[in-house]
Specification:
The complex is a heterodimer of chains A (about 375) and B (about 150).
Chain A: H1 8-14, H2 21-24, H3 92-101, H4 120-137, H5 139-148, H6 156-181, H7 192-202, H8 207-232, H9 236-266, H10 271-281, H11 283-290, H12 292-303, H13 306-335, H14 347-350
Chain B: H1 13-22, H2 25-29, E1 34-43, E2 49-58, E3 60-67, H3 70-73, E4 77-82, H4 83-96, H5 105-109, E5 115-118, H6 122-130, H7 132-148
Parallel strand pairs in B: 1-4
Antiparallel strand pairs in B: 1-2, 2-3, 4-5
Helix pairs in contact in B: 1-7, 4-7
The chains are: A mainly alpha (about 375), B alpha+beta (about 150).
């Protein structure tokens, strides 16, 4: 690289001879003046003219900002995700703006000094749930981080959204770690079964597989856990934690659902691949409802004690299981990959749900 | 004597609630932008109902007041429940200066009883979760107002 440096340019500048090639030979679109919307200048506002054109297949593999003048000597960055449909979603621009706008601080925005001393069983249960969530949430940072550098720079907005997700999930790991350590308890027990799913996400062979497992399935289920967490939280402090996390998680699920739809609308033949990914990943549902580190703390939080949980905790976990599966099935419908009749989980897991009722599946997309 | 129009579920109750929120716009602005059309359907024992429209748009919140039907408002999701369920929630918010742990919107709707959230589109339904804190702050404004007026 050193040999490419033109030191004679320094002499020219000293003698007042500017190059000005960047100024005089411009071919990129000029005169763009977007009008800010009422919340400010958004990505959608600047999606104008040629700057709003995203190629279906990226013509180059450089970090050149989309729409700029291209120097032919720009290096190849080695991107492997060069098709728009591999990462895009119709709601992407708005989700990015929303994510940036709705950031919160686990340090500042949670009223930590209002935590209350809890019954030891309840504190143990809360700490165990916080341990589990702190454990699983970071995978949703690790996964996009693993793939982002492979995504072509022409799909910058998708990368930007994934950056917000990385920050969101870091904050979730932070807030649950802080909760476990802030009220006289501590961390509980890690879950080998849970980490098997995390490994499946991280080991995904491509972004399609990882995104289906994480954005649609994993985060959808965790969103249900956050909702349940808000319901059973022992005080308003934990309730606020769960509500704020719920908001972030729902954004990621919205991306995952609409990304998969975008992908399948453009390549319906991929549907069977996605079914196969979800076949492998749906064991997570069984894991969530059969792992004592998850089920029992939730039951104790819902009922207030170990004794009460043993007698009526099953009702609470049934409500969560059914809601979790139904909402997941509805998102699969929206994504264009109906899963009713396809789920391979034990009957005890699917009991009370519409998982086997194929008449509720929406019409399939036409392949071709 | 004419009944106070701002009392739930009279036609102006949602206007009143949104008016309270607008007195302190920074509370919503701090939570960030939102984009959501939520119908609130109050069901009465005689089988009748009243539907109200709430719109979150950027940093703004607006009431569409009582609306003639779901179709005209085009909500992305509908929060439904009996008059008694809503009344109990609002009374709780006023009494506790904000919903207690048994009366938050999510708590009351997760099991689809006594409130339920519904939508033809899961993306619309999930917006109820995406803006959970914003919606709770809006509804809790009734409690803050009660605190101010002693």
């Amino acid at each position: 690289m050193k040999s490419d440096i033109d030191l004679s340019y320094l002499e020219k500048v000293r003698s007042g001879q500017f190059d000005l090639g960047w100024l005089n030979n411009v071919t990129s679109e000029w005169g763009i003046k977007p009008k800010p919307s009422k919340i400010g200048l958004t990505l959608r506002d600047i999606f104008v003219g040629s700057y709003g054109d995203i190629p279906e297949t990226a013509p180059r593999r450089t970090m050149a900002p989309r729409g700029c003048d291209i120097d032919s000597e720009l290096p190849d960055m080695g991107y492997t995700i060069n098709s728009k449909s591999e990462v895009w979603a119709d709601n992407l621009l708005d989700l990015y703006e929303e994510a940036v706008s709705r950031q919160w601080s686990a340090t500042r925005d949670i009223p930590w000094n209002e935590l209350q001393e809890l019954d030891p069983d309840v504190e143990h249960a809360m700490c165990q749930l916080a341990t589990f969530l702190s454990e699983v949430e970071m995978v949703a940072s690790d996964f996009p981080a693993k793939w982002m550098w492979r995504i072509n720079h022409d799909f910058l907005e998708a990368k930007m959204f994934l950056c917000t997700q990385i920050m969101d999930e870091a904050r979730h790991s932070e807030v649950f770690r802080k909760r476990a350590l802030s009220n006289g308890g501590g961390l509980g027990k890690a879950s080998p079964v849970g980490e098997e799913f995390l490994k499946l996400v991280l080991d995904a062979k491509n972004y399609d597989e990882g995104s289906a497992l994480m954005h649609l399935l994993g985060e959808g289920l965790v969103l249900s856990v956050f909702r349940a967490g808000e319901l059973i939280a022992p005080t308003h402090v934990e309730k606020k934690i769960f509500r704020l996390c719920m908001q972030d998680e729902a954004r990621h699920v919205a991306y995952g659902t609409m990304h998969l739809r975008y992908r399948l609308e453009r390549d319906p033949l991929l549907a069977e691949d996605f079914h196969a990914f979800l076949d492998r990943g749906e064991d997570l549902i069984s894991m969530i409802v059969t792992t004592p580190q998850v089920v029992e703390p939730a039951a104790i939080l819902a009922t207030g004690s170990v004794k009460a949980a043993e007698s009526i905790g099953d009702e609470a976990s049934n409500i969560l299981r059914i809601r979790m599966i139904e909402e997941y099935l509805q998102r699969c419908d929206r994504a264009g990959i109906p899963r009713r009749g396809r789920m391979k989980l034990p009957e005890q897991i699917l009991e009370g749900t519409s998982a086997n009722d194929v008449s509720k599946n929406p019409p399939q997309m036409v392949v071709g | 004597m004419m009944e106070n129009e701002s009392l739930f579920p009279n036609p102006k109750w949602l206007d009143y609630l949104v008016g309270l929120v607008k007195r302190d716009p920074d509370r919503l602005k701090d939570l960030g932008i939102a984009d959501f059309r939520l119908a609130i359907k109050v069901e009465f024992e005689d089988g009748s109902n009243k539907i109200f429209g709430l719109v979150l748009d950027g940093y703004d919140v607006d009431s569409q007041g009582e609306i003639s039907g779901i179709d005209s408002f085009k909500p992305e999701a509908t929060l439904s429940g009996s008059f008694d369920a809503f009344k109990e929630m609002f009374d709780n918010i006023v009494e506790n200066r904000g919903a207690d742990k048994f009366h938050t919107l999510n708590t009351l709707s997760l099991a689809e009883f006594p409130l339920r959230i519904s939508s033809d589109d899961p993306i619309g339904r999930d917006k109820f979760y995406r803006y959970a804190e914003t919606l709770q702050v809006i509804f809790d404004s009734l409690g803050l107002e009660a605190a101010k007026s002693g």
